[in-house]
Every structure is written in C-alpha cells, then in structure tokens.
Amino acid sequence: MKNITKLVLGIAFCLGSCSPKISTSIRKEYETLNYEEEVVVLQINDKQPDDAEVLGIVKVGDTGFSTKCNYETVLDKAKLEARKAGGNGIRITKHKKPNFWSTCHRIDALILRLSE
Q1: pTM, whole model, 2 decimals?
Q2: DSSP summary character for residue 94
Q3: Mean pLDDT by 10 residues, the chain (116 residues)
Q4: Burial grade of 102 (CB within 10 A; 0-12, 13-18, 19 or more)
Q5: Which domain of life is it from (predicted)?
Q6: Among 21, 46, 15, which residue's Cα sits nearest to residue 105?
Q7: Collapsing DSSP states into helix, strand and coil, what is residue 5?
Q8: In the prediction, which pLDDT does 3 show?
Q9: Cβ(113)–Cβ(30) under 8 Å?
Q10: The domain containing residue 46 runs over which residues?
C-alpha cells in the first residue's frame, strides 16, 4: 500500500512539474475576460499606449522539469493570466531564449487594460 501511495504521489509530482512556472502580482483586477477574447501582445520594443492601465505583472519561467515551454505556449500562458485579471493586453518586458541552462523560453510581462 505504501508503494502505491509513493507511486501515485510521484506521478502527480511529475505531471505538475512538466508545465512552466507561472507567477503573477496583481495590483488591480477587473472582471475575468472570456477565453475567446483577444489579448494584444506588445513586444519589448513596442511603445506602450499612454492610456494603458497596468494591472500587474506576470512571469512565466522554467521549473527545471518543464517540457512544454516553446514561445507560443509561454505566450498563451501569459495571455491566460491577463484574461484572469481582466486585462486585454500584455507588454513583454523581458524574454530569455532557451540556452545551455534551460530549454524553455521565459518571459516577464506587464498585464495591461487597453482602451478600445
């Protein structure tokens, strides 16, 4: 019985640790947006609109065991966090590409609420 418990816990740990690590710091929230709502992505060199309201910060990184962390996947996870906070835009402030230490893309982004 102990071996089965250890096996189940081990599998749960492995499945949970395969996805990228996501951390958010929200200063202000609005109603959650529908998953079909578009989230505008501003790259590092793009100018942030003057009327954009910063709702918080999202960081998508590597757990050390992450496997599904190509750029598109990491970007989708950041967009999902923006929708949860009621944001309809993100502005990437840092992007680390895969290297010797990590096979994952890692980004930091501001969560924005843009006017229509």
Answers
A1: 0.81
A2: E
A3: 53 55 89 92 94 95 77 94 96 93 91 90
A4: middle
A5: Bacteria
A6: 21
A7: helix
A8: 58
A9: yes
A10: 2-113
